Input
Amino acid sequence: MTPHLLLQNGTLLNPGTGDTRRADLLIRDGQIARIADTIETEDGVEVYDASGKLISPGWMDMHVHLREPGQEHKETIETGTRAAAFGGFTAVACMPNTDPPIATRDVVEFVRKRAEGLAVDVYPVGAVSKARAGEHLAELGDMAEGGAVAFSDDGSPVQDAGLMRRALEYARSLDTPILQHEEDLTLNPHGHMHEGAVATRLGVPGIPALAEEVMIARDAMLAEFTGGHVHVQHISTGKAVDIVRQAKAKGIPMTTEVCAHHLTLTDEAVAESDYDTHTKMHPPLRTQADVDALKAGLKDGTIDVLCTDHAPHASFEKEVEFTAAPFGILGLETCWGLIGREVIQPGVLSVAEAVRKLTIEPRRILRLEQPTLEEGQPANLTIFDAETEWTFEAEHIRSKSKNTPFVGSAMVGRAWAIYNNGQFIEAKKEETEA
Output
């Protein structure tokens, strides 16, 4: 614990307004006690020199897989939040595809209990359907009372339109969103990468962009009819962005997120890596035209949130032939460095705009309290920069798993530390001690 901390010479960033201020920030007993141009050091107060660094409200990743309960060989709540802290996140929302799934109140409360006392806040997402089987509506109200902040069947998209309608109507009464993995599985029975020229050349069964786009169009219509809030998870195609853009223009309650890896790699990575299973994710890596459209959607505000879809898998699960491997890669440790390289440096978003999509927007969608850099408020903050050039190596991985295609990749921008729940975690110090 670090109840008392003085951050000196940092630049405070308000992601809502874009305003910055060079100031010192004093934390006492986990609360922001004072913000001033200069604050003198005091006995018993640890000092951190934040020169050249930005300080913002703590970041949130609203799409992670912590795998606990039941798949602790891949990740645990402890190791997943350790990876989150290294990446600059003070909060995560964890998906329900665990074993047993987060589909009942007792499992929601189990996750919350396991996360108590950690520096990173963990918000469970409950399943839409019982056992994530897509047949019967789960006890959404009971899970909400137990602490679920949203509902999703995640990698098992809600195929039944009637069930999705009922879920949206129920979730609307609870003022919670439905987070949907948008995919019509009848259009993708056995695909393993993006359906297109590269998949044809490689002889790998494809996942058509149409499967994502058709389902988003359906859910936009259901959201319009019910008034329920649909949040499109990990959007990946240009036409999907257009559908969400049109839905928003009509006032339909629909929001969306994009993963850093979908802004970085294309389906060519599968060929260039010689079928490396670390390039296999769901939705798959798409084309360069799709990447460009995703960045345009970020720029014009169609895409609300930046996230990771952090999906750890054990080495023995990934070290198989491409079509036998599970989907998913790590994302928490590399997210900001990829955003800096692919989004901020090229001018797609400003630093403040990118940070807004990591702080204000995910919490707005999940109806969570917004942390602020104000005196008297709990200290929940991220210390970072957007310029440091570095190379991501295996030694930087804090997850229990190692499945990432970005080892050896150039990054721009680093998360240096977080403070939350009375705890100060420095990524560099932890890296040295690891």
Summary: Residues 5-55+375-433 form a domain with the Urease, subunit C; domain 1 fold (CATH 2.30.40.10). The radius of gyration is 21 Å. The chain has two domains: 5-55+375-433, 58-365.
